[in-house]
Amino acid sequence: MSTPTRWVIVDDTDSKIQYSGAWFQARGTLDNLGNFGAPFLGTSHGINANGSLSYTFSGSRVIVYGTSKVEQSGANGHDPSWACSVDGVSIPAKDAIDFSENNWILCEADSLSDGQHTVKVLGTVLNPSNTFWFDHFNYVPSSSVSLDNVALFVDSSDSAIQYGSGWGPLRDIAEMTQQNGAKATFDFTGVQLSWVSMIPGDDVPGAQTSATYSIDGGTPVSFLLAGLTAGAMEPYNQIFFQTPQLSPGKHHLEVVHGGNGQTTPLSLDYLVIQNAPVPAGSSSTTRTSGTSVSSGSSSSSASSTASAGSSMTTSGTPAGGSTTGVSTSSSGDTSGLPNNTALPNTSTGLRSPTTKSKAPIGAIAGGVVGGVIVIVALVALFLFLRRRGRKQENAVDYRPVASPSTVEPFNALPSAPASHQVQQPSSPPNRSPVHFYPIQTTGKVAQATLTPKHYALSQSFTTQSPHLNSSFASNQPPTSGLDGVAVPSGLFEDESLPQSGSGPGRVVRHEDSGLRLPAREEETVLELPPLYTRG
User: Fold this and answer.
1) Gap between the Cα atoms of 425 and 145, Å rounded
2) Pick from 73, 69, 198: nearest CA to 134
3) Where is the composition biased (Polar residues) (predicted)?
């Protein structure tokens, strides 16, 4: 039969327990008894005479815990003694030991049918100076049991507890780690959680160290792992830490080991979760060390969610191996739960990490300034390149020319002297004289006021730029701003010129690169390139 990992804990103060006899309650008087830890919640019910108690539950297993503090009575007996039964049927009782211990199993029934049962405990006290002590019940609940307002025992073997690397078994009792930074996490539903375990003895290092726990991502809280001196008994059921009271709802616990292979290990035997119902349709806010975490609630009870095997992150708060009972209540009243301020951390040089750092204002400002500088540099580079491009576009290769109105690459006719008279040499033999006609443009007319004029061909002839005004016939110098062009000698002494003088001739000055129409057969055309002026 597999061992259940979740049990409901019923403390001796639960109002559903029926006591018969002169029972009394003790609180704190047995805390330092033996090495099995203090009674659950630090309370017990005792009787110095014969008495009984009973409790009805719905489940399949039940264990009765008390304190074994007896003396020998007769050859094989002890006083006080006890006997247990379930539904009137006797179940085996566990023998007492010769020294006093809390958290001792008095009797156990592990093969019950799943359903409602009544467990009864009978205490027999022969010597009124002796006391029979009852502490609490643990039982495995049926699925129909509401877990609202119950204390839930969760064994370290529960699958919902997530162990990181570095964890391993501590004999057959608990889980432990000696790896620095090893983590364990657990999600749970409740209002408080306690981490309970043993402190191992001589087989592991005993140097003091610490670990931390955090709830819902809040500030980690440091707790002490005190370790043992050589030869000391191993204490069990030690509360390593207990969380403050939380808001009802789901929570996340994370525990991180701060020691190493040369220090006391971090171990876990079981967790105790105090459940409470979650108000329907409400959202709860958990505050841990100044950090608030909002957790949504549902209509289902917190305890039933915990019993379903939700996982929880385990973390540590300073308890230093305290044997004080877990602060929980099985009666449903959680108002009496202590807020459990962590015990002072006696280890030196340790600090709790801060929650969240402030926004890095310096880094943000530096980034903004740097971005602005980059943008300004890019704009300046763009303007510089643009300005240089414009200068290159406007640059013109000016070279000395015969006339200020003539620009290369076209070779214009050289300017005439002041008289604008050019002596034309005699025509070569067998060559007919060329009849000169006004220069005609092939493109857009440069000046609309100019009218073509006819020149009389003679031994000495006069030519003038088409930019001259109508007074060109006189031998006056050209008007200011207008350039005269003289025809050099031999200009028309080309073999390509027609030999016949029968056809008329004309001179054409081109002003653009437009289409050139072929000349008529009956005339001779002298084509001149366009004239360009400086821009």
Assistant:
1) 137
2) 69
3) 337-357, 467-479
Distance CA 412, CA 405 (A): 9
Q: For the domain with range 152-307, which CATH number is right: 3.40.50.2300, 2.60.120.260, 2.60.40.1080, 3.90.79.10? A: 2.60.120.260
Q: How confident is the model at residue 453 (pLDDT cuts 50, 70, 90)?
A: very low
CA distance 56 to 120: 9
Q: What is the DSSP string of 440-491?
A: EESSS-S-TT---------SEE----TTS-GGGGS-PPPPTT----PPPTTT
How much is the mean pLDDT over the chain? 72
Identical topology for domains 6-144 and 152-307: yes
Sign of the torsion angle spanned by Cα atoms 202, 204, 209, 212: negative
Neighbours of 222 (CB within 10 A): 21
Class of domain 6-144: mainly beta
**Of 102, 80, 77, 82, whose CA–CA distance to 93 is shortest?**
82
**136: nearest Cα among 241, 236, 59, 53:** 53
If one counts every other C-beta atom within 10 angstroms of the C-beta of residue 462, the result is 21
pLDDT at residue 510, as a whole number: 62
Q: Tell me what pLDDT residue 388 has.
A: 75
Alpha carbon 313 to chain centroid, angstroms:
20
CA distance linking residue 458 with residue 481, whole number of Å = 29
Both structure tokens of 504: 């008329």
Torsion sign (Cα): 168, 4, 118, 333? positive
pTM for this one?
A: 0.56
What are the structural domain ranges in the chain? Answer: 6-144, 152-307, 408-535
- DSSP codes joined into one string, 309-324: T----------TTB-P
Are the C-beta atoms of residues 409 and 532 closer than 8 Å to each other? no
For residue 335, with 0-12 CB atoms within 10 Å meaning exposed, 13-18 middle and 19 or more buried, which class applies?
exposed
